[in-house]
Amino acid sequence: MEKIRYLSIDLETYSSVSLPDCGVYKYAEAPDADVLLFGYSVNGGPVNVVDVASGEDVPEEILAALSDNSVLKWAFNASFERIFLSVWLGRHHPEHFSSYSISEDTVGRYLDPAAWRCSMVWCAYMGLPLSLEKAGAVLGLPDQKMAEGKALIRYFCAPCSPTKANGGRTRNLPSDAPDKWSVFKAYNLRDVEVEMAIQERLSKFPVPDAVWEEYALDQEINDRGIAVDMEMAENAIKFDELSRASLTEAMRELTGLDNPNSVMQMKQWLTEHGVDAESLDKKAVARLMADAPPEVAKILRLRQKLAKSSVKKYQKMRDAACSDMRARGMFQFYGAGRTGRWAGRLIQLQNLPQNHMPDLAEARSIVKSGDYELMGLLYDDIPDALSQLIRTAFVPKEGYKFVVADFSSIEARVLSFLAGEQWRLDVFEGGGDIYCASASQMFKVPVEKHGQNSHLRQKGKIAELALGYGGSVGALKAMGALEMGLSEDELPSLVSAWRDSNPHIVSFWWDIDRAATEAVRTRGRTEAHGLTFTCRSGMLFIALPSGRSLSYVKPRLSENQFGGECITYEGTTAGKHWSRIETYGPKLVENIIQAISRDILAYAMRTLSHCFICGHVHDELIIECSRGVSVDAICEQMGRTPPWIAGLPLRADGYECEFYQKD
After folding, report:
1. 552: nearest Cα among 511, 507, 587
2. What is the pTM of this model?
3. What are the pLDDT digits (tens) for 388-398?
4. Strand ranges across the sheet with 116-118
């Protein structure tokens, strides 16, 4: 056999564990998890399908290549193949398994990701869909993924319900449907061919080596996982059940409704008590409570408590935690295709509720002890307390601590730097409060956080959060301006004041708009503010300072709703559909700033890769470390400005904790 330089791989597998609910780490760990079909190609040659389920053996040289870091392994969503094969090799071919890192780390049961490449990441880098079927369709490949696949996966890859017709079996084997199995083997072969065709089609646009290094580090962080205090999580689930039952019964007694959880029944009850409610979402209920009679307000308060059940997060912890009680696979590399930022998966660390309880540790210890009666005695709102305690269910391993460090105002700093808004850079250089400084600039008076004109800081804050990317009155409302006490009448003047105070940022929006538009119009190359815009081969690329590029598929100039000229491109909408999307300067600026901020976080992750990074959220890193590690040393390393954006004033702040929390 020729020397193996790279493999293209696709697996079909079986496990009794639900992959969507529990993730691939838990899925692969199931005692009955096994490879059914092993499709592979060596060095781009013909595809072979090994029918493992029918007793065929994967060739020894292919097994050996899986742990050989001189052989690149390619797959679409390669993390699945790498993780599943890690566990499978360890069970069935331990002589071919080897891991990476050091003994104190928790990645020891997985293959080294440094030798793996993911064609799904390549698609994401190019702004293409993150599914093999959709990516193949957009690229117009002659051979497409077979449509029969989903039904065959349901039939062979998961348990089935026992019926009289199937003889009471709980799993379908190849011998149960030889014709289907034959088609399944063809499906496996086709998937490898489509993956290879995607690589061939994208070969003119290689992913930078630095991005593959980030991918390997991302996989290492996912392999490491983060420990879950399962005793606390289980008790939180029990507390939630007891609390819900108590609240539901109280509402039944007060309203006489059969099901007070029913939106229809509750709306009817409110109407009968003189309150018209179009919606019963969180904001609507809060507005209704402000004007409702006391007896109605009491019911609405109970409903709010009932609606604040956070048990799903705790249940996800239980679902995702592996046998060593560490939750893995919570971060998807390049999950946000427009910017390359990470996306949250499974437990979703990116949208955990904040904690504001002054007695967080005490409340946590009560839940951990299982004393529901004491919890009810000390906390009037148990659902809210459980919600605030979600973070605290993540704990460092024994003898270690967490250091949590994050960047200060990272997007505002990058935006100010690229736009050249000097007064803002001076604030950051001097360690000032950007919300106070912004309010002072807008209203032409000194503003101090706890001093003179402190009431204006909130207006500065809401303006900073909402207006940096071309937002107007609608953006202020979406950011909660009205709930913060601002009146609708003052919002337009707030927009004007912020824009007048930041003329270089406003100019930056339209400089980017002109540069991108000109690149698309001429199918050429333009520059603005150190960024390069290139339109070629049906793509618009925006080269970032890091060396990475943002990609927009099939750009063209169209007319917008106001009769002006705008750029449109093909992409995945918020509704997960592939269609044409309209963009313009401020939106492109948002993509650029968020992408550069992401690159700065990735640079910090590489700087701190000698540490056990076990999680990250937006601009924050969670590091599991020995008790003697200095918080200041980690913050200093995290806050180092990358050489490719020299002069940007960065700052990282951090704290240590015995369980995950917001400081």
Report:
1. 587
2. 0.93
3. 999 999 999 99
4. 47-51, 34-42, 6-14, 72-75, 116-118
Name the residue among 340, 336, 320 with its Cα closest to residue 328.
320
* Number of other residues whose CB lies within 10 A of the CB of residue 60: 11
**Backbone torsions φ then ψ of 404, nearest 5 degrees:** -110, 120
Please report, for residues 7, 69, 115, 633, the alpha-carbon distance to residue 92 in angstroms, rounded to integers and kept in the order given: 20, 20, 21, 44
Q: Which sign does the torsion angle of CA 378, 384, 386, 389 carry?
A: negative
Does the structure show a pLDDT above 70 at 203?
Answer: yes
Tokens for 388? 């605030």
pLDDT tens-digit profile of 54-98? 999 999 999 999 999 999 999 999 999 999 999 999 999 999 999
Residues 238 and 370 sit within 8 Å (Cβ to Cβ)? yes
Run of H or E residues at 557: strand 549-559
Q: Which residues contact 244 (CB under 8 A, 6 or more apart)?
A: 306, 309, 383
Q: If we measure between CA atoms, which residue out of 414, 427, 442, 454 comes closest to residue 498?
A: 442
R_g (Cα) of the chain, nearest Å: 27
E strand or H helix that includes residue 614:
strand 612-617
How far is it, in rounded angstroms, from Cα 51 to Cα 37? Answer: 5
- The CA distances from residue 419 to 286, 583, 589, in Å, are 40, 19, 10
Please count the residues of the chain. Answer: 663
- CA atoms of 88 and 69, how far apart (whole Å): 18
- How far apart, in whole angstroms, are the C-alpha atoms of residue 167 and residue 214? 50
What single DSSP character describes residue 447?
-
Residue 578 banded pLDDT, cuts 50, 70, 90: very high
Contact yes or no for 312/393 (Cβ under 8 A): no
> For residues 392 and 660, is the Cβ–Cβ distance under 8 A?
yes
- Measured CA to CA, the distance from residue 645 to residue 27 in angstroms comes to 42
What tokens does 293 get?
């009679």
